[in-house]
Design a protein that fits this description.
Number of domains: 1
Largest sheet: 8 strands, parallel
Structural class: alpha/beta
Shape: globular
CATH superfamily: Metal-dependent hydrolases
Number of strands: 8
Bound molecules: zinc ion
Order of helices and strands: HHEHHEHEHEHHEHHEHEHHEHHH
Length: 340
């Protein structure tokens, strides 16, 4: 998630939160699962405050402190037994771009489990230079854009210098996709497809899996071997959807942002995605601003009673495949063999 406005009501989203945030311990590691968390946000204190405050606006009672520190986040991830995580930052204005990327490099240099991603802004004057700095000088795995929070289209002409660098190095671009009604924003998905076609070396990871356009996601997975999905928040929302569906006509107002009808139509394709392409589907958490600690989010995943191999792919196999494809097999090799 990231900064922005939402329509106000949050009772359904909040109802389950106390239990979801009860304790950081007894995580997936304790249950024999190896989980590479492909979506974590550790940012500078001012940005963390803004992010947590924004979540509190639409999730009354959200229990995470605005003053949460990097140390606390890392301690939670370790308590959950997460062996590796992607740390994602993104500038809200151009002026913080370089500082934010440098912050991520310095932060992650001291955290063996952290895999840093860089970012830039549409107003970044020399996008090729910033992308090269992140990939070539800082050694980042890839780049991340959050077009809805950053307030610009991710796949326009002006971003092509970024795609060039990622294509050249065969690296991932993580882009927020979906939850259009929640954000009140829209993305040109044909433009996205054009970029994927033009830069086959670039590995495009659709964060939130185009929620809820799983039919289109399935088609794109068939067409483009450089297309990947990250199910962050999507899994929890689909579980929530299942609960709301059983309420029939008495849907709370917050259900509108879940795009109930669209979800219903697309649901068969969600299951087909998992059947056909789990080797390219990851499951991150948005920690510490997602839907709970890892034990609750693992519970959400297991609600769908996936086959063991599919679950293993979402938790670690797909991330391992991405690392390997991007020339980061040394990180893949660092993963514990048990459950990974
Ligand atoms: Zn996020």
């Amino acid at each position: 998630m990231a900064s922005g406005e939402r329509n106000g009501e949050g009772e359904v989203w909040a109802a389950d939160f106390p239990r979801r945030w009860e304790s950081a311990g007894s995580g997936p590691g304790g249950e024999g699962a190896c989980w590479v968390d492909t979506h974590v946000h550790i940012m500078p204190p001012r940005r963390m405050r803004g992010l947590v405050r924004w979540v509190k606006k639409f999730t009354p009672g959200f229990p995470v402190s605005e003053d949460i520190t990097a140390e606390e986040i890392v301690a939670s991830l370790r308590a959950c037994g997460i062996p590796l995580f992607f740390n994602l930052v993104f500038p809200l204005w151009e002026e913080e771009t370089e500082d934010l990327n440098r912050f991520n490099r310095e932060l992650c240099a001291g955290i063996p489990e952290a895999v840093p991603f860089g970012s830039l802004h549409i107003e970044t004057p020399d996008k090729e230079r910033e992308a090269r700095r992140c990939i070539e000088e800082y050694g980042f795995l890839g780049m991340k854009l959050h077009p809805y929070a950053q307030g610009f289209p991710a796949f326009g002409e002006e971003m092509r210098p970024l795609f060039e660098v990622l294509h050249e190095h065969g690296r991932p671009l993580l882009v927020h996709t979906g939850f259009d009604v929640f954000y009140g924003m829209y993305m040109d998905l044909e433009e996205m497809e054009g970029v994927m076609r033009d830069y086959p070396g670039m590995q495009l990871v659709a964060v939130h899996a185009l929620f809820p356009r799983f039919r289109l996601a399935h088609h794109l997975m068939e067409e483009y071997p450089n297309f990947w999905l990250d199910m962050t928040n999507t899994i929890s929302c689909l579980r929530l959807h299942d609960g709301l569906r059983s309420q029939g006509d008495s849907l709370p107002p917050s259900a509108s942002s879940l795009e109930m009808e669209e979800v219903e139509e697309n649901l068969p394709y969600f299951h087909r995605l998992l059947e056909d392409f789990s080797d390219r589907i990851m499951y991150g958490t948005d920690f510490p601003v997602g839907f709970g600690y890892h034990h609750a989010l693992l519970d959400d995943l297991r609600f769908f009673r996936l086959e063991r191999g599919v679950e293993e792919n979402l938790l670690a196999g797909a991330a391992r495949n991405l690392l390997t494809r991007c020339g980061f097999s040394h990180l893949a090799a660092k993963l514990p063999t048990r459950g990974c």
